[in-house]
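INFO  loader      accepted 1 record
INFO  loader      residues=338
INFO  predictor   begin
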Amino acid sequence: MNDSIVRIRNAVQYVRSSPSRLQKFKNAAEHERIESHSIVILDVPTRWKSTYLMLSTALKFQKAFDRLLDDDACYGLYFSELDSGKNRVGPPKEDDWDNAKVFVQFLHVFYDITLKFSASLSVTSNMFFHELCSIATELNTLANSGDYLLGEMAAAMKYKFDKYWGKIEDLNKLLIIALVLDPRYKLDYVKFCFGDLFEENKVNEMTYDIKELLIKLYEFYKGVDSISSSDQVSRSIPLENEGDMGKVNENVDFRLERLKKFKQMKEKKDFVDLKNEVESGSFVIAALEDLGLIWDCWLLHLKIWDCWLLHLAAALGYIYPKSALEIVLFSMFFVCVI
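INFO  predictor   done
INFO  writer      dumping C-alpha cells
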C-alpha cells in the first residue's frame, strides 16, 4: 500500500513541479474528456487528511496520468532519475490505482466525520455518539468485507480505536443523552445503536441506565426551573448551519445505510413502548419525546381555527382581519357571539 501511495505522489509531484508540465497534464485530461473543476494536489506525507485529498483527486484523473505517459516523454524519464540517492518509484500502475481506491474508501469514513466535528458554527454534541457508533460499525463491516487489504487496515484501526476510546459502555452518558434529545433519533435509535455493539442483555441494561439518567436530569432541571423561572430568558440555537454542513462531503453512504437499517427495523418490529416501561418516569419520556409533536399539533389547530374563521366571516359578510391584533380581537368576538 505504501509503495502505491508513493508512486501516485511522485506522479502528482511531476505534474505540479512546473506550469508547462501542469498544462500538458490538463491537455491530457481534456483529451480523455475528464470533467472536473479540481486539479491534482500534492500531500503532506505526515498528514493523513492531505493524503486522502491527494488520492481522491488523483483517482479522478487516472486516465489522464496514463495518457501523459504517451504524450510526454519527460514524464517517463522522470521516474528513471534518482531521488535522494534512490531510484524514484513510478509511474503508478493499475494495481496502484486499485490500492488507492481501497485506501480512499477506508479513509473517507474518518475524513467525513472529522469535517462534521470540526464545524465551528453548529452544535455537534448531539452527533458524537451517533458518529462514534458509525465508526465502530463501519470498521467491523470493513474488517469482514472479504477484501484482504481493506480488512487488514480495518482490523488494525479497530484495535487502535478500542485502545483510544476504551469501552463504549464507559463513555460519558451525557453524550448519549444529547442524542436522545435530538428529535431525529430519540431513545429508539440509541437502543438500535446498542444492538449493533452489544448482546441483548447488555443492550437492555444500558438502555435502562440511560432512561434512569434521563429521569434524574429531568427532576434536577425541574427543580432549578421552579426556583429561577422568573429569570429565565428563552433562547433559540440553530441545530445546523448550512454553511458548515454544505462543506461536508455528501457521499456518506456508510451513515445512510445505518439510518435505512434503523427505519427498516422499526417497520418490521414493533418496538417496546418506552413510555410504559418505567412507571415512575413515564411522564418524563413523554414530555421529552412528544414535545415536537405537541408543537406541530398546536400549529395545525391554529391553522384549522384560522381557516374556519375565514369561511365564517365570509358567510356573515365580514371582512376578515389581516393583522395579528385584529385576528385575536376578531376571534374573541366570534367566541363571545357563538
